[in-house]
Amino acid sequence: MSKLYTFHGGIELPENKQQSTGRPIGTPPLPARLCLPLSQNLGNPAKPCVAVGDRVLKGQRIAEADGTVSAALHAPTSGTVVEIAPRAFAHPSGLAETAIVIEADGRDEWQPRQGFPLWQSAEPAEVRRFLRDMGVVGLGGSMFPTSLKLASETLDTLVINGAECEPYISCDDLLMRERAADIVAGIAIVTRLMQPKQVLIGIEDNKSEAIAAMRAACMNTPYRVVAVPTKYPSGSAKQLIRVLTGIEIPHGMRYTDMGVQCFNVGTVYSVCRAVEHGEPVISRIVTLSGAVARPQNVEALLGTPVTELMAWAGLSPRNDGVILGGPMTGFRLSDLSVGITKSSNCLLGSSPKLFPPRPPAMPCIRCGECADACPAKLQPMDLFWFAKTKDFGKAQERNLFDCIECGACSYVCPSQLPLVDYYRFAKSEIWAAERDKKASDRARSRHEFRLFRIEREKIEKAQRLAERSTAAKAAPQTATTAGTNSHLTPSAEDKSAAIKAAMERAAALKATGKESPVMQSEEAKQAAIQAAMERAAARKAAREAAGETPLQPPSASDEAKKAAIQAAMERAAAQRAAQAAASVGLPETPAAPIVPNNVLDDAKKAAIQAAMARAAAKKAEREAAEVNQRSGAAPATNALDDAKKAAIKAAMERAAAKKAALDTADAAPPATDTSPAAPAAQPAAMDDAKRAAIKAAMERAAARKAARDAEQGRDTEQDKDS
Amino acid sequence: MHSPHIAKPTTVSVIMFKVLAALVPGLILSVFFNGIGVLAQLALATATALLAEAAMLKLRGVPVRFFLRDGSAVLTAWLLALTMPSLGAWWLIVVATLFAIVIAKQLYGGLGNNPFNPAMAGFAAVIVAFPAQMAQWASPGVPLNALQQLAYIFTHQLPSSGAPDAVAPATSLGLLKTRMLLDGYDVSQFFATPLYGHVAGFGGVWIALAYLAGGLFLWRQRLIPWQTPVAMLVGAASVALPLWQYDPVHFANPLFHLTASATMLAAFFIVTDPVTAPTTSRGRLIFGFLVGVLLYVIRVFGGMPDAVAFAVLIMNIAVPFIDHTIKPPVFGAKRKGGPA
């Protein structure tokens, strides 16, 4: 015997299981119509792949898995698809869900059944895909697609859940008694896929026949059947894992991250039926009990209307409704015409005698009974208080979302407080608030991006204009010897363009009403534009020079000069940009109207630098000429080499500048300046923008992750098999 | 409408009446040792409590019969009657009960919302306001018959036959204190006096044992936690024992303190009041322990020999803080030494 652990809390309940365990699993008559909601798994509802009027065979796929978190749906019997429309759905909300309605033809004709005989040698992923297409989901109640839960290929412990702790329900009990061999065959398949070090089958010790049957079926296998103490909710996956292994899986953590996975006996049974026999999930065992004349378990086709099943079991005329699920976690059906789904484990005829209405609630007397009963080790009386006062933040802080809604606290509450209802209310309010927040965040970011786009288009326009005019001026001057004051002329054009751009920006600023932080980035943009314009001019000159070089080998010294000038201009532009960037940081940065002066000054500075560079180039040229003369070797070649080198260097600088600009742009989309220039200015000015953007991106990622985790947590933790 | 569709049959009323039942043995012994006056006090308190509760419920506009049936007012009345002097004037217990029900309970929002134990608040109010009238215990040496006790309670007249010592000024704790202060007794001399042997000494021990039995019954019924009573008794003993070891001449045996007066009543019926105690196990241990320590400190070093009320009320103040501070780990949270 392995060591058993206990979980905190839990309650003893009147079992009321013996009513439905006296008879074997029955087969109710074939219903005339089957109503199959597409949402029979957690995640995306299946996508219909049949049309109204199609004839379908038993086991034929009628809806396909939509994405990874989904599972297929199959026709439970042969017949005709008569409707694909929203129909009442077995859900507490009573809302309609799209469903496929099949009119049975009474022949119950199977399609050719194709199992997966090579599962032993196949890739696990193939088997998982097969199971998804066979519609295998968690039959313990979670309806979580089994293919996803099988995804881990190593495991310490595989837990098979046959605890079935909720009163009245005995479908797993009967399944284990009558079909233990198939369950064990299913475990073998799961074991092959997940390679667990041990397999533990947990069954509450009040099901001695099921334990005996399972032990017999496991005789020649390494699987161990463990009788666990009867205590509600030991059938909850986390609690059962705790009892069998001592491991407590925190909220939001994947089971497989802790080396454990848990499947309901019904689920592994359907794995076996699918893989070995090619039977998709088209039926399940349902306990019919409560206020009925003939309580028993039946194998009911999915989509069988509740009314028909209850009529077959002899629903008491004194009933006051039907409860789907057990008395602890089930809910009253508002519409009895709904079809049963893959999660419908029990139908209870309700009567005032069996399930009397809850007496009026008294105030909470803080007795702490609920805390003693809570299997999630929460402080339910505190959560109740926070939910009642709508202090949802505090409720979340005190782990409201760890609540598995088992109902133990409500059951023991001497004040008859409907505690779980309070928690459901708080949870739904929090979800609604998060949805609202997401929606408004999305709207806000969309608005902000629109403003940014308008601004960017204006800047681009101004820049294009500036480049065009620069090009127009530069064109005739290329013919003249480099080193004239040609650079000053386009700067006049630059000035007017810059003025125009600045005015546009000012207007835009006024329109958006943005304040100083934006101003700074505006300045940065301005500087970037100016630098870009200068650089564009320089580039043009360089391009021309480079293009001319091979054509004019004799004027090699001219080429060298030109290249030197270009390099100097590049440097000047870079310096200019750096200055602009520095000025951006200063609080006394001149506002838009003063910009022209700036431009002029900068242009002058650039011109001076260019002149200095020219002088240096001339000197270099002279020296080069002297060297050439002294060496007597081909002077043109040498000069050409130098020119080439300079040109290459300039090109490399440009490339570096471009790269830097691109990097900045990538990192900070909202502040992107499409100008590829001013590598020195942009990073500095955009640091804030970048940081903000990165932070926003990280937050988004975190939020996404949290949402995913929450979903996963919900999925897995509700894998209650009672 | 919503799950769960079944509920445990243990309601607030059931709990309250089981607690009342658990008080009965102690009550019987109290009547046996302290006289019929106890029953008179009990009747006065119960009637006052029910009337005050009904009036306040009506004023607050909540269902009167529904809440009157919860039994919480009766329990408050009984606890008061069992802690008040058996021969106290009739109006004294009426005032105490009114204060408990009207001010300490209903003005705070009724059952479940009162920060202070109502019975202890009522007791404290009258002992502060009427200290002399609170010293009206039946004297063991000169027993009054039932009629004489009732006459004294309602008319404050002693029989003409003349029995000036018929009414004792205090419980054993008070006696111990005054004898040591005024007459220079040490502890052993005091225990040798016939007064101790009878008043709350011998009889008191029996009553305390009856309360203990009632408390064990409640614990077996899972209606009270073990943490608060045990922690309170340990808390009182933890101060009494070293002091007694250190100076047995001036400090009484810890057992005397544990069995004296209302110690057992407090441990099993007063600090276990769920409304005014912490909700967590650790919180209950801290709360109970500190009540015990305070009880001893106030008794021995303070001016109030009947210190239960003050010890409990002081710790009631700390309950919200204790509950706020102590947050037990949830399922799956890391624990030291645990397997997960």
Automatic annotation (TrEMBL), chain A:
Positions of [4Fe-4S] cluster 1 binding: 364, 367, 370, 413
Subcellular location: Cell inner membrane
Domain of life: Bacteria
Annotated InterPro entries: 4Fe4S_Fe-S-bd, 4Fe4S_Fe_S_CS, Ion_transpt_RnfC/RsxC, Nuo51_FMN-bd, Nuo51_FMN-bd_sf, RnfC_N, Soluble_ligand-bd
EC category name: translocase
Domain 4Fe-4S ferredoxin-type span(s) in chain numbering: 355-384, 394-423
Lipid bilayer topology: Peripheral membrane protein
The entry's keywords: 4Fe-4S, Cell inner membrane, Cell membrane, Coiled coil, Electron transport, Iron, Iron-sulfur, Membrane, Metal-binding, Repeat, Translocase, Transport
Cofactor: [4Fe-4S] cluster
Stretches with biased composition (Basic and acidic residues): 687-722
Assembly description: The complex is composed of six subunits: RnfA, RnfB, RnfC, RnfD, RnfE and RnfG.
Protein's job: Part of a membrane-bound complex that couples electron transfer with translocation of ions across the membrane.
Full protein name: Ion-translocating oxidoreductase complex subunit C
From TrEMBL, chain B:
Assembly description: The complex is composed of six subunits: RnfA, RnfB, RnfC, RnfD, RnfE and RnfG.
Enzyme Commission code(s) on record: 7.-.-.-
Assigned protein family: Belongs to the NqrB/RnfD family.
Function: Part of a membrane-bound complex that couples electron transfer with translocation of ions across the membrane.
TM stretches of this protein: 12-33, 89-108, 120-138, 195-219, 226-245, 251-271, 283-301, 307-326
NCBIfam families noted in UniProt: rnfD
Membrane-topology annotation of the record: Multi-pass membrane protein
Keywords of the record: Cell inner membrane, Cell membrane, Electron transport, Flavoprotein, FMN, Membrane, Phosphoprotein, Translocase, Transmembrane, Transmembrane helix, Transport
Protein name per Swiss-Prot or TrEMBL: Ion-translocating oxidoreductase complex subunit D
Main localisation: membrane
Modified residues (FMN phosphoryl threonine): 171
Cofactor(s) required for function per UniProt: FMN
Entry's localization field: Cell inner membrane
Keyword Membrane (UniProt): yes
Transmembrane helix in keyword set: yes
